[in-house]
Design a protein that fits this description.
Length: 190
């Protein structure tokens, strides 16, 4: 559940909502009632006017919790390369264009994002969750521990026992392309 203000520096909450491909329940909050119709046009679950009355906020939260049955999450769509995701990278929160992700690496029960500008950030999302959301034409799983953006692949070199090294632009150490994922990759591009 996200409470999103409409009036923000630089752009509106609507712009952010549309660019960030939010897959959560959204309630718009604003001091201007002129935006109410547009909020419901983008499938907002509620619209609160500032100053928000505590009773009104409590009623909205109660309704959202009651309506959220297990397994009743909004449908998750795949990102496009132009979408933005909100991540903490190199210790600072920022919006990152999906096309700027070089690779996603397993990091225990989370994942590590490596960006085109060399930044890194740990995200509490599994590799499987990323695999289900990233554009499947541009991002491929090359190992149980890594997903790469094909735009950043410089070369693939044979390594050992039918495994390969994948060299990515901007990353010094190559990643391993496992035998199992190599055969899937060949079949996909055959």
């Amino acid at each position: 559940m996200i409470f999103l203000d409409i009036q923000m520096p630089g752009e509106s909450g609507f712009d952010l909502f549309e660019r960030a491909a939010v897959g959560a329940r959204v309630v718009f909050v604003t001091a201007h009632d002129a935006h109410a119709l547009r909020a419901f046009d983008v499938n907002a679950l509620d619209y609160l006017l500032k100053p928000v009355a505590p009773e009104r906020l409590a009623a909205t939260v109660t309704r959202l919790r009651r309506d959220a049955e297990p397994g009743d999450e909004p449908p998750v769509r795949r990102f496009t390369m132009a979408d933005f995701v909100f991540l903490t990278v190199d210790g600072r929160a920022r919006f990152l264009r999906v096309g700027g992700i070089v690779c996603v690496l397993a990091a225990g029960d989370a994942s590590e994002i490596v960006t085109a500008d060399g930044a890194r950030g740990r995200v509490p999302r599994s590799l499987k969750a990323w695999e289900d959301r990233l554009p499947e034409q541009q991002f491929v799983r090359i190992h149980r521990e890594s997903i790469v953006n094909l735009q950043y692949v410089e070369r693939i070199e044979e390594w050992s026992h039918e495994s390969f090294h994948v060299h990515l632009r901007g990353i010094t150490e190559p990643l391993t392309l496992s035998r199992r994922h190599a055969s899937k990759l060949r079949a996909r591009f055959a």
